[in-house]
Every structure is written in C-alpha cells, then in structure tokens.
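Input chain follows. Return structure tokens only.
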Amino acid sequence: MTDAKRRTTPGHEPFMRRCLELAAIARSGGNTPVGSVVVLDGEIVGEASETVPMGTSVTGHAEVLACQAALARAGRRDLAGAVLYTTAEPCFMCSYVIRQLRVALVVYGVETPLIGGVTSDHPILTDPALDPWRPTPIVVGGVLHDDCERLKAR
C-alpha cells in the first residue's frame, strides 16, 4: 500500500490498538492474528479475537464475532451508524455481514488482496453495484498498518 493510501487519524488509533491486543490473543491461541471491535457512539459495544482455525465454527472470524457481540449488547437488529475496526481487511464473508448490518465505517490495518472485500477482484464491501442491496460503508485502510503487519508476520 502506498503512503498516500495509508491513513492515520488519532481518533482511530485507540480502537486499533485494542484490535492489536485482541489479535495477539488470537495468535497466542493458535489462530490467525485478527482482532476487531465495533464502536457505537464512541463506545466499544462488541469485540472479538479470531477463532479460526482452532475454534469450532467456520464463521469464527473476529469481525463476525465482534458484530454478533455488538448486536447482543446494543439490543439491535443492525449496526447502522457503527464503526468496525479490524487489524485486517475484511474477507468476503465478513464484508457481507458488515453490509448486511449497515455498518457505516470500516477501519482496517493491512490488506488481504486475495480475499478482501475492498482490494480483491471482488470488492463486496465497496462495490457500488450492490448499493440497492445494502449501503456501502466508508472504508479507511492502512491505520497502524506497520503494527498490524508485524503482528501478522510473527
């Protein structure tokens, strides 16, 4: 990713730092090092560490789990107006969930161009052709990129 595409906004950093902590927990459990939080009205309402491959659910991606926790805590059927932070670009499955739940903003650290919902050949998260189906969230990539990349490489 070029420096022009990397974005570091001080308001995003505390939430991304929490994602990095959650990703380290995932890695220590033998899982892919991904951590995610969902923020609503400036407060974390859901968070999760990746549970794949060691968990028992194929849908144990940090983003999906964080969204499920946020829905349960907020007592809502969607996450309209929420921000999802994650250390890695959401995959196809997670991108579907994010759009289905009407998340307003997605902030991620590193790209996953093979299966990513933004940078792959199938940008499910950002494809404007899917707008009638569910709104396209605003996406900010590259926040704390180097920290996320180092965690992934360990």
